[in-house]
Amino acid sequence: MQKQIRLFLPEIVYGGIDGSVTTFAVVAGAAGAHLTSEVVIILGFANLFADGFSMSVGSYLSNKSDLHGYERLKRKEYHQVVHAPEKGIEEIREIYVRKGFEGELLERVVEQITSNKDVWVDTMMKEELELTPTSKSPLAMAAATFFSFILLGFVPLLIYLLELTSGLHIHLFTWACGLTALVFTGIGILKSYVNERSIWRGMAETLTLGICAASVAYAVGYLLERLF
Predict the structure, then answer these.
(1) What would the pLDDT profile of 117-130 be if each residue is shown by its tens digit?
(2) How far apart are CA 192 and CA 33, in angstroms?
(3) pTM value?
């Protein structure tokens, strides 16, 4: 279970980052232009679902391309094993020479590996091409990206939706900033776990990205509202 969660974490993290940053940028731009809550919600949800779908399609195509690329190279290695075994044997020998094997031990290892085509090809994929099989389902990765994008990207819009449904009288953009900052902090922690880096650095990078995107969007909204 833990292994499967870790498998999906990169898609969840980067889907969440894109979802929260892009939606918050829409909210910030709308705040800069002094648009109403209704307009913020319309623009925000349109952006949320359109960009979420686009990113999930991109994730699907990327993972599917990686899977097809691996299978294509694997077929190529099987073809070599069948039609040019001498070359394949020499490549295995070179691999294990670099690992420090020599003499009779080297020949025994080469003979053992090349006696089984599947082991032979797997060794070539891992040692020569530095590729390993993936258990990632392109469709599952796309779904993880989409739902992470939608779930975390919804947070900047939450306070605007509450204001319309419950009649809250608060500074909406300030609350949106606070809630989104919490999301950025959480994503930064997850990002640090995925990349095995400092938690503080991960949090700082994500917060900085969000602040920069929101600042640019706010400034553009403010200027356009003054111009038109």
Answers:
(1) 999 999 988 988 88
(2) 35
(3) 0.81
